[in-house]
């Protein structure tokens, strides 16, 4: 995969004008001079400054103006600590994997950001900006309604798993929630071939993310997630496997 | 066990002051360490003996336990002598409850119970992983970093929240130190002073610019890592490429280090991003590897933070870490148990400990 630019109309069908909740979003909005869509031949608005919103382990994520529309730019920068050969390989592999999976899941009708542009050489992925909060922020903020969101997340993850796609970093920071709808992001570490073990490890990672960041109410949240997940997936063997993965986790703390 | 031949109990203590020293005993793996620290965290002595299995051998629990039983009394005597204190000045005894290897843990717990009864001191069971973290915090004066804990038996990424050291990421199969040790055996590197040290030296022998990098499986799942696939790959591949002379042992050591450390640094950075923290503390035996320290520093610097590392005295298992953690626990008003309950356990998770001595 060298470079894809998805046509503007494909992008347009995903652009959302729904109200935005998070304060960061409001700031992003203020920096946009107009919401009028720009045509390809129209000059790009130059007065819009890029704004960094996250610096993760892999990428710098910013809000940018792409063809007159608010978009998310995910740039994977070289890592100084990593051997250059290894670094280059990981960066391009993950970027391509993320773009592929986004396109694939979208085709399957699962809510993920629309891909606008991919440039492997410069480590750039430009995609739809999904409004709303991360599940992590949402669980930290509101006291009620967490169970319902977790049920929705459970169904969304099951749908993804039905396509034999394993996320690889399924944490509450990588699930966006807006207007009751759930959108999974960050597919750079995705892969696997849909074995029960792979799916169960995905579930285990999410379960632990909920426990470590939202410990007081983790139990009912995880329960709600798993019930909805199981209903949607209809593969009881995965939950059985999850028990095994958990047991392995408990046993691990030994020397040797 | 023979009664310690330390200065006799009848001898009066130098001054009738409050006891304010803690004796710590560590022996969860192949090292036995004894130390004396003050309630303020001053390290008065920190002595250690290591059981080194012959080249080609892994852990030998029975021999290790025997080694510890042989050395514990002379080490206690040495620690007290170096610290220049009398048993009367000891406030409490700390020992490692777990996690670790059963036989070595038990042999040190017996010694701890014996001196506690002999000197009528309270006894405090300590979690080995928490002890590594508290030692790192004491020595580097880092306040609330994300912790990368890497040793022969453990690989964890930890962050403190609400009175617990929570595990954000860990190995889903073998520990990084175990992976290094087993690789060293395959290519015939000796166990002395430690397999990891020999890999580090081989990797930089004659300059890293002369190394040829070999692509190895790189398995990161979110904040978790996996080394077993990589280890079996390099185990089979090593024999082949060494016979064909396409790579040298030094090339393999270099490639292995670059790959496994990059995995560790990546998951550490992910946890830092997740917790919104920019400092990292590296503890555990693998943490004295200078290349790992350098990679952590590069990563932290790019995030506007710092990497805190210690040298082999404190990052390799030692008595001071246990003594200091016992001091924290005891002074926070909990920690001491009746001698009959001063047992040990092979499994003891870092997040099982309620950290009542921190109030942030
Ligand atoms: N399409 C999007 N729409 C809205 N916000 C997004 C979108 N993509 C990413 N974000 C925001 O940016 C943050 C980071 O994005 P992402 O998870 O893709 O990269 P990363 O976290 O840097 O990678 P890693 O998890 O490996 O550290 C998300 O938590 C989210 O807040
Ligand atoms: Mg992310």
Automatic annotation (TrEMBL), chain A:
GO terms, molecular function: ATP binding; protein serine/threonine kinase activity
Pfam families referenced in this protein's UniProt entry, alphabetically: RIO1
EC number: 2.7.11.1
Residue ranges of every copy of the Protein kinase domain listed in the record: 47-256
GO biological process: tRNA processing
Protein name: non-specific serine/threonine protein kinase
Family: Belongs to the protein kinase superfamily. BUD32 family.
Basic and acidic residues composition-biased segments: 37-53
Matching PROSITE patterns: PROTEIN_KINASE_DOM (PS50011), PROTEIN_KINASE_TYR (PS00109)
Enzyme class: transferase
Biased composition (Low complexity): 7-17
Catalytic activity line of the entry: L-threonyl-[protein] + ATP = O-phospho-L-threonyl-[protein] + ADP + H(+); L-seryl-[protein] + ATP = O-phospho-L-seryl-[protein] + ADP + H(+)
Region (Disordered): 1-53
This protein's GO CC annotations: cytosol; EKC/KEOPS complex
Assigned keywords, A-Z: ATP-binding, Kinase, Nucleotide-binding, Serine/threonine-protein kinase, Transferase, tRNA processing
TrEMBL record, chain B:
Occurrences of domain Gcp-like (ranges): 48-324
Residues that, per the record, bind substrate: 149-153, 181, 196, 200, 289
Location, primary (coarse class): cytoplasm
Presence of keyword Cytoplasm: yes
Enzyme class: transferase
Record GO cellular component, one term: EKC/KEOPS complex
Pfam families linked to this entry: TsaD
InterPro entries named among the record's database cross-references: ATPase_NBD, Gcp-like_dom, KAE1/TsaD, Kae1_archaea_euk, Peptidase_M22_CS
Keywords, alphabetical: Acyltransferase, Cytoplasm, Metal-binding, Nucleus, Transferase, tRNA processing
Reactions the enzyme catalyzes: L-threonylcarbamoyladenylate + adenosine(37) in tRNA = N(6)-L-threonylcarbamoyladenosine(37) in tRNA + AMP + H(+)
Entry note: cofactor: Binds 1 divalent metal cation per subunit.
Subcellular location: Cytoplasm; Nucleus
Enzyme Commission designation: 2.3.1.234
Binding positions for a divalent metal cation per the UniProt entry: 128, 132, 149, 317
Keyword Cytoplasm: yes
Cofactor annotation: a divalent metal cation
GO molecular function: metal ion binding; tRNA N(6)-L-threonylcarbamoyladenine synthase activity
One GO-annotated biological process of the protein: tRNA threonylcarbamoyladenosine modification
PANTHER family the record matches: TRNA N6-ADENOSINE THREONYLCARBAMOYLTRANSFERASE
Family affiliation: Belongs to the KAE1 / TsaD family.
Listed name of the protein: N(6)-L-threonylcarbamoyladenine synthase
Originating organism: Gracilariopsis chorda
């Amino acid at each position: 995969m060298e470079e894809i630019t998805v046509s503007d109309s494909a992008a347009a069908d995903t652009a959302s004008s729904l109200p935005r909740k998070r304060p960061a979003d409001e700031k992003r909005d203020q920096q946009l001079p107009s919401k009028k869509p720009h045509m390809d031949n129209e000059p790009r608005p130059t007065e819009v400054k890029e704004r960094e919103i996250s610096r993760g382990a892999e990428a710098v994520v910013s809000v940018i103006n792409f063809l007159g529309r608010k978009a998310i730019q995910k740039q994977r920068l070289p890592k100084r600590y990593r051997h250059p050969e290894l670094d280059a390989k990981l960066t391009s592999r993950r970027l391509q994997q993320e773009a592929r999976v986004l396109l694939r899941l979208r085709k399957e009708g699962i809510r993920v950001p629309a891909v606008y542009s991919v440039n492997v050489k410069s480590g750039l992925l430009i995609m739809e900006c999904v409004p709303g909060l991360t599940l992590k922020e949402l669980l930290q903020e509101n006291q009620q309604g967490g169970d319902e969101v977790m049920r929705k997340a459970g169904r969304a993850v099951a749908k993804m798993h039905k396509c034999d796609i394993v996320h690889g970093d399924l944490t509450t920071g990588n699930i966006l929630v807006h207007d009751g709808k759930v959108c999974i992001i960050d597919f750079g570490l995705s892969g696997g071939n849909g074995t029960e073990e792979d799916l169960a490890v995905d579930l285990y990672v999410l379960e632990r993310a909920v426990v470590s960041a939202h410990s007081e109410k983790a139990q009912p949240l995880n329960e709600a997630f798993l019930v909805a997940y199981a209903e949607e997936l209809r593969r009881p063997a995965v939950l059985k496997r999850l028990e095994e993965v958990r047991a392995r986790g408990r046993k691990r703390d030994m020397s040797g | 066990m023979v009664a310690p031949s330390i200065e006799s109990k009848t001898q009066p203590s130098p001054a009738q002051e409050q006891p304010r020293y803690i004796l710590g005993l560590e022996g969860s793996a192949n090292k036995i360490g004894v130390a004396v620290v003050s309630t303020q965290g001053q390290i008065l002595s920190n002595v250690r003996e290591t059981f080194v299995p012959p080249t080609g051998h892994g852990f030998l629990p029975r021999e290790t336990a025997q080694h510890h039983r042989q050395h514990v009394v002379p080490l206690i005597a040495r620690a007290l002598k170096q610290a220049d204190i009398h048993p009367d000045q000891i406030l409490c005894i700390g020992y490692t409850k777990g996690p670790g290897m059963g036989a070595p843990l038990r042999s040190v717990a017996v010694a701890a119970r014996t001196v506690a009864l002999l000197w009528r001191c309270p006894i405090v069971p300590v979690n080995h992983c928490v002890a590594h973290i508290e030692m790192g915090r004491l020595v580097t004066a880092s306040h609330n970093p994300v912790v990368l804990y890497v040793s022969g038996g453990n690989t964890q990424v930890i962050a403190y929240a609400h009175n617990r050291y929570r595990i954000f990421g860990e190995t889903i199969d073998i520990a990084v130190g175990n992976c290094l040790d087993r690789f060293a055996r395959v290519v015939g590197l000796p166990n002395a002073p430690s397999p990891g040290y020999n890999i580090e030296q081989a990797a930089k022998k004659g300059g890293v610019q002369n190394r040829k990098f070999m692509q190895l499986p790189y398995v990161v799942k979110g904040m978790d890592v996996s080394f077993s696939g990589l280890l079996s790959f390099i185990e089979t591949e090593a024999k082949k490429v060494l016979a064909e002379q396409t790579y040298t042992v030094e090339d393999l050591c270099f490639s292995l280090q670059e790959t496994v450390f990059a995995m560790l640094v990546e998951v550490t950075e992910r946890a830092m991003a997740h917790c919104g923290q920019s400092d990292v503390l590296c503890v555990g035996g693998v943490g004295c590897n200078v290349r790992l320290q350098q990679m952590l520093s590069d990563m932290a610097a790019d995030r506007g933070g710092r990497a805190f590392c210690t040298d082999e005295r404190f990052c390799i298992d030692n008595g001071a870490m246990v003594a200091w953690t016992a001091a924290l626990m005891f002074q926070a008003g909990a920690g001491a148990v009746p001698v009959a309950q001063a047992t040990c356990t092979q499994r003891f998770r870092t997040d099982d400990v309620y950290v009542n001595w921190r109030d942030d």
